[in-house]
Amino acid sequence: VREQALAEAAQEAVTADGKRIQVFANIGSLNDVEIALANHAEGVGLFRTEFLYLENDHWPTEEEQYKAYSRVLKAFGERPVVIRTLDIGGDKDLPYADLPKEENPFLGHRAIRYCLANPEMFKVQLRALLRASVDGTLWIMFPMIQSVSEIRAAKALLEECRNELKQEGVAVADSIPVGIMIEIPAAAVTADLLAKEADFMSIGTNDLTQYTLAADRGNEQVAHLYDAAHPAVLRLVQMTCQAAEKAGIVVGMCGELAGDREMAEVLIGLGLHELSMSAGAIPEVKQAVRRVDSKTAEGLAQKAIQQENGDQVRKMAKRSQ
Ligand code: PEP
Ligand code: MG
């Protein structure tokens, strides 16, 4: 099975009834670029930029960031690269950022919240992204969005940077899709409102699962309660997909669930257009997509959200293979 998946890895993933599903890679460093290309990623659905900040002992400069973004964009050319802005806080600490100790870091001052509170720092990243935008196909994504005002504030800073660069005579791509991660239950529930301000949405099931099920993603003692296939999570995925469909924007998934080939049929049935995963999973997920009939998948997804727990969903999905 693996051999056949590898042999066909370069081909697109189209369901048996002709629906195209884009299969992208998640990358978290420049080394991951080669692995993603070798596995025939059709683009990058999530470029985690934290490494630039974590491997330095200072805030990475605009130039340092520009070089990294530009390299990845050039490597993928016409294929889209979704670069996510800094997602610090939670479990990811930065010694030089002087983050305050928090009782509940995952519910605290992290990601877009931290960035909006530190606009001068955030603008360094936004400027670097805009400068790199002419080197490939850049999509910008904001993490941990909770409500519309955050998207508006982040987009306003992006516009400010665009104007500054224009004044400086620096070239910037004309149209850069700006999207958001759906990883807070509130965002999934109000996805129809958020969709009005976003060009695309990508579901982060790692965080969405921990917040929905109130089970810390890194705590082994509650690991048995943490399952991205739980029907509660899947219902939020479906709500998000329906809102995206209505708004006419692309919706993908970049959490770990997207790389589970046994769940591909359910995920397509819920309405996802794009799946982004660690590169090694791409060939087998593409193969799984090719076996799916999207009408049957819709029925399976409706059954999945009626199950009692994630185990039942996974068993059901496996039986359907
Ligand atoms: C997620 O939360 O699902 C996600 C993709 O982001 P991260 O794992 O970096 O928090
Ligand atoms: Mg996340």
Automatic annotation (TrEMBL):
Similarity-based family: Belongs to the PEP-utilizing enzyme family.
Species classification: Bacteria, Bacillati, Bacillota, Bacilli, Bacillales
GO cellular component: cytoplasm
Any single biological process term in GO: phosphoenolpyruvate-dependent sugar phosphotransferase system
Organism: Paenactinomyces guangxiensis
Residues annotated as catalytic: 254 (proton donor)
EC class name: transferase
Catalytic activity: L-histidyl-[protein] + phosphoenolpyruvate = N(pros)-phospho-L-histidyl-[protein] + pyruvate
Protein name: Phosphoenolpyruvate-protein phosphotransferase
UniProt superkingdom: Bacteria
Task performed by this protein: General (non sugar-specific) component of the phosphoenolpyruvate-dependent sugar phosphotransferase system (sugar PTS). This major carbohydrate active-transport system catalyzes the phosphorylation of incoming sugar substrates concomitantly with their translocation across the cell membrane. Enzyme I transfers the phosphoryl group from phosphoenolpyruvate (PEP) to the phosphoryl carrier protein (HPr).
